[in-house]
Every structure is written in structure tokens, then in C-alpha cells.
């Protein structure tokens, strides 16, 4: 089965498992990675846990940069893709702060921490892992491919990457990373199930300008997450989440007036 099949011949007979198999694989790898990381947490000294997190931070920052380059590929009339990305990230960030998304996500993490009696870094691990596992082009393209054609290849690759990342994060932050699997299930699984709605509007998601713009904005968020992991800064990454929705809406609005 090709990686990006013809979207217009969407098979209507796909079962629920066919549409969401990649998400369940991802869920398992995150949980297994978190379990292994927790085992290593007791075996590794603090300085080694820190260097593992720094390594993940460097790779996360690099991944964010490669994703952000998608902004250079957005054809949008007389407005450069970088400018569109700037508008999306700023407006999305303002909306996120207004809606206090970061605060609500941390409140959820603190509630889970209290329920399971997790360690002091529970919330930080839950928030960082949820953002890392759910923001990115592989999540979007993989979920669309899985939901439309039953092909879980992209999500399977993402699952392996997330599993290794879960080892690094949980060895430093603890069990909160494992609970991010619930966010993966809801967000990624929901996107796979909703993929049918995009079948006609996105004939080729790999080159569709709204997807490129969304991936670029997501890349900026991933760079910020990498900086947080490296302890270079403490950015409110969750506050920028509305930008992922606002970005394609901004592009569609611009197309109506050009």
C-alpha cells in the first residue's frame, strides 16, 4: 500500500480498528517507553537523567526547525508563508492565554498527580509529553492516512519515535509521561476518525498549503518545547495550541480575498 494513496478513492468499508490502528500502536509504545523510563529512573543517577533529557531537547529543537521550514513552501498570493505563520502563532498565542489553556492543562496534570500520588515533576512530564506527542506533521498526516486508507505506516514510525522519547522523558519527569497517552488517544484517534471529512478538501495532504502552514506553526511550537527541555527558557507552549486551528482558517480566509 503506498504511503499516500489516492484520497478520492476512500474505502468506506474500513473498520474502527483500520481507521485507528496507528493510534493504538502509538498508545502502547508510549506506555511501554514510560514503563522502561521509570525503571531506569531508579537505576540512573540524576546527572545521567539530565543528559538524556538534554539529548531529547536537542533532537526536539532540530525536529522543530525542520518542521518550521514548511512555512517557506506555503504559496499564499502576495503574503509570505513566514508572515502567515507569524500572524497565526501570535493570534493563537493571545487566544490561548485568554482561554488559559496552559493553566487548564496544568490543572489537569495536577489533578491526575493528586489522584495517582505522582512525584513532584508529574505535571511537567504530562504537559511536555502531551505536546511533543501530539504536535507535528506526522500526527496530522499519519492520522489522515490511517483514517482515510487504513494505512498506519506513518503513525507506526511516529510510535517508535515517541516510545524512545517516552523513555527519556519518564526517566526524568516520572509517571506523568505515561498519562499523556490519554491525550494521544483522544487527539490522534479523533483526528483519524474525522479524516473522512477532509477527503474532498485535501486531495494531497502532503502538499496542501493549509497542512504546510499548520506544520510550520507546529514546528515553531516544537522549537519552544525543545528550549524548555534544554532549560534555556520556560515558554507557555500550550497557549499556542489555538494557532494550529487558526493557521488553516487564516489561509482559507486569505484565499477568499485574493
UniProtKB/TrEMBL annotation:
<keyword id="KW-0812">Transmembrane</keyword>
<feature type="transmembrane region" description="Helical">
    <location>
        <begin position="233"/>
        <end position="254"/>
    </location>
</feature>
<feature type="transmembrane region" description="Helical">
    <location>
        <begin position="208"/>
        <end position="227"/>
    </location>
</feature>
<feature type="transmembrane region" description="Helical">
    <location>
        <begin position="24"/>
        <end position="44"/>
    </location>
</feature>
<dbReference type="InterPro" id="IPR007563">
    <property type="entry name" value="DUF554"/>
</dbReference>
<feature type="transmembrane region" description="Helical">
    <location>
        <begin position="164"/>
        <end position="187"/>
    </location>
</feature>
<feature type="transmembrane region" description="Helical">
    <location>
        <begin position="82"/>
        <end position="101"/>
    </location>
</feature>
<dbReference type="Pfam" id="PF04474">
    <property type="entry name" value="DUF554"/>
</dbReference>
<keyword id="KW-0472">Membrane</keyword>
<protein>
    <submittedName>
        <fullName>DUF554 family protein</fullName>
    </submittedName>
</protein>
<keyword id="KW-1133">Transmembrane helix</keyword>
<feature type="transmembrane region" description="Helical">
    <location>
        <begin position="122"/>
        <end position="144"/>
    </location>
</feature>
Amino acid at each position: 500500500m503506498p504511503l499516500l494513496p489516492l484520497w478520492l478513492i476512500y474505502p468506506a468499508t474500513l473498520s474502527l480498528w483500520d481507521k485507528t490502528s496507528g493510534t493504538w500502536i502509538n498508545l502502547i509504545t508510549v506506555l511501554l517507553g514510560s514503563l522502561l523510563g521509570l525503571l531506569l529512573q531508579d537505576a540512573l543517577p540524576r546527572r545521567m537523567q539530565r543528559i538524556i533529557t538534554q539529548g531529547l531537547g536537542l533532537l526536539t529543537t532540530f525536529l522543530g526547525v525542520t518542521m518550521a521550514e514548511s512555512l517557506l513552501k506555503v504559496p499564499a498570493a502576495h503574503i509570505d508563508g513566514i508572515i502567515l505563520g507569524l500572524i497565526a502563532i501570535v493570534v493563537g498565542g493571545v487566544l490561548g492565554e485568554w482561554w488559559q489553556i496552559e493553566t487548564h492543562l496544568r490543572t489537569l496534570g495536577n489533578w491526575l498527580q493528586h489522584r495517582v500520588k505522582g512525584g513532584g515533576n508529574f505535571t511537567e512530564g504530562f504537559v511536555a509529553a502531551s505536546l511533543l506527542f501530539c504536535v507535528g506533521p506526522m500526527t496530522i498526516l499519519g492520522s489522515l492516512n490511517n483514517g482515510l486508507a487504513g494505512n498506519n505506516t506513518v503513525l507506526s514510525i511516529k510510535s517508535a519515535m515517541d516510545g524512545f522519547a517516552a523513555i527519556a522523558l519518564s526517566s526524568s519527569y516520572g509517571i506523568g509521561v505515561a498519562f499523556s497517552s490519554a491525550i494521544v488517544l483522544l487527539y490522534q484517534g479523533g483526528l483519524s476518525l474525522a479524516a473522512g471529512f477532509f477527503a474532498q478538501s485535501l486531495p494531497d495532504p502532503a502538499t496542501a498549503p493549509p497542512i504546510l502552514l499548520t506544520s510550520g506553526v507546529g514546528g515553531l511550537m516544537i522549537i519552544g518545547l525543545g528550549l524548555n527541555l534544554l532549560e534555556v527558557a520556560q515558554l507557555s507552549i500550550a497557549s499556542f495550541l489555538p494557532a494550529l486551528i487558526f493557521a488553516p482558517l487564516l489561509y482559507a480566509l486569505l484565499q477568499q480575498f485574493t
